[in-house]
Amino acid sequence: MSEDCTHTDTIRKVTPSARGCEECLKSGNWWVHLRICRSCGHVGCCDDSPNKHATAHFHATGHPIIEGYDPPEGWGWCYVDEVFLDLGDDTTPQDGPIPRFI
Predict the structure, then answer these.
(1) Which residues have CB under 8 Å from 53's CB, separation 6+?
(2) How many CB atoms lie within 10 A of CB 66?
């Protein structure tokens, strides 16, 4: 973990909220990459995606840390401290196949 992040105590083992970006699946939109909230398990799309649902989730909830989730990549990002985190083996397994759009 990074010594520059003051929010590592918020990292939890979580269950993914969806098999893809939760909001994009509901609205029929597409995404580029997925991120999972390590506070609650919300799966949202990255900032390279048109709707940026992972960042929107952070702004709505204040949950600070996401994990690269497409596939689980071993890194995290703290929105508050603006630092990357090395999650090592503490990754969230995908809950079945993830649809591909890009």
Answers:
(1) 21, 22, 23, 24, 31, 44, 45
(2) 26
Distance CA 94, CA 71 (A): 7
Q: Can you tell me which residue has the tokens 């990754």?
A: 91
pLDDT in tens, 52-101: 999 999 999 999 999 999 888 999 999 999 999 999 999 999 988 887 76
Region of 46 (left: φ > 0; alpha: ψ -120 to 50; beta: rest) is beta
Nearest by Cα to 46 from 37, 58, 55, 57 = 55
pLDDT digits (tens, 9 = 90+) for 4-44: 999 999 999 999 999 999 999 999 999 999 999 999 999 99
Cα(86)–Cα(36) distance, rounded to whole angstroms? 15
